[in-house]
Amino acid sequence: PFDPQADSGLSPFDRRHKFVASVVYNTNFSGLSDAGKAILNGWTIAPIVNMYSGFRYTAVTNGFTPPTAVATGSTFGTSPAGGINGSNGSLRFGLTPNNAFHTPPIKYVDLRISRRFKVTEGSKIELLAEGFNIFNRTQVTGVNNRMYVLSASGNNVIATFDPTFGTASDLSNGFFFRERQIQLAVRFEF
Q1: Mean pLDDT (whole number) for 98-107
Q2: What is the pLDDT of residue 179?
Q3: Which of 18, 20, 33, 111 maximizes the CB count within 10 A of its CB?
Q4: Strand ranges inside the chain, DSSP E
């Protein structure tokens, strides 16, 4: 755990694939009756598709190890409390590279539909509906990265595999990736 060379690896921001596409389509059908044109023309449909690789994360170990008696030459001392490095915090699991794991990909579609109506020559009213994550896909924005839990039994340190390693710990609770949301608005332009 004290070898800085072991921390070399990919960046947590290493996302190999990213695809974003947006389209703005305005309806303008010809060959319709006046009523058909009034109903179907003038709409704006604007979807945005986002798909990209999940973020990378590092497997860690944590847990509390109480101080234990250690023979140092002809005297006895104690080993540090609080895990391998004495900080009582998480420490990269040394048998896996830094940022060796990654979360599932993030995929979502946003959609905006609007229609403008002319009120006077210089003013318009726009009715619009916007949907975010419209397919309501679960977006994993965090995972449990604890691979092993350390504990002490006598003078032995025991590493127990955490069965929840790699499972989602944050599902769409971030600012950008939420459950499906829809908003309606009216805008007056003059």
Answers
A1: 88
A2: 80
A3: 111
A4: 18-22, 25-26, 43-52, 56-57, 60-62, 69-72, 75-78, 91-92, 101-102, 106-120, 123-132, 140-143, 146-153, 156-161, 168-171, 181-189
What average pLDDT score do residues 20-47 get? 90
**Parallel, antiparallel, or unpaired: how do β-strands 18-22 and 43-52 relate?**
antiparallel
Its pTM stands at: 0.69
Average pLDDT over residues 17-37: 90
Tell me the CA distances in angstroms from 85 to 3, 61, 178, one per residue in order. Answer: 12, 11, 38
CB 116: neighbour CB atoms within 10 A?
Answer: 16
**In sequence order, what DSSP letters do the residues of 50-87 get, joined into one string?**
EEEPPPEE--EEE------EEEETTEEEEPPSSSTTSS
CB proximity list for 20: less than 8 A, separation 6 or greater: 48, 49, 50, 51
CA distance 102 to 178: 20
pLDDT digits 0-9 by tens, 59-81: 888 765 555 544 455 444 444 55
| φ, ψ at 53 (rounded to 5°) | -60, 150
